[in-house]
Amino acid sequence: MQLKVTVNGQVYEVEVEVEEEPKPTLGIFMAGGNFAPPAAAPAAAPVGGDGEGVRAPLAGTVARIPVEEGQTIEAGAVLVVLEAMKMETEITAPAAGTVGQVLVKPGEAVTGGQLLVELS
What we know:
single chain; 120 residues; mainly beta; CATH 2.40.50.100
């Protein structure tokens, strides 16, 4: 390949050899075998603990707690909002009842399975 190059106003003609590089391949691809079925969607936050309560289904940070101790709630009411990976997850009440003790506070980091709120 012939190129013209100008350096400080001086024109030079340069011949360049271009080598073609081999295109990358995907490598070995195998199909078949024993594949595990896709993971099931996570279940709703389980009830449990010393009394009845709601546990964190995932690790995250407590963003908000829209209920107060002693408050009467309906099934499906939002008890705690967790933030994980810039996404918010609402943790809801599995049944109607009364909020007993709130065991976490906003900004607190929680682990999956940690008891968040006791219900009665």
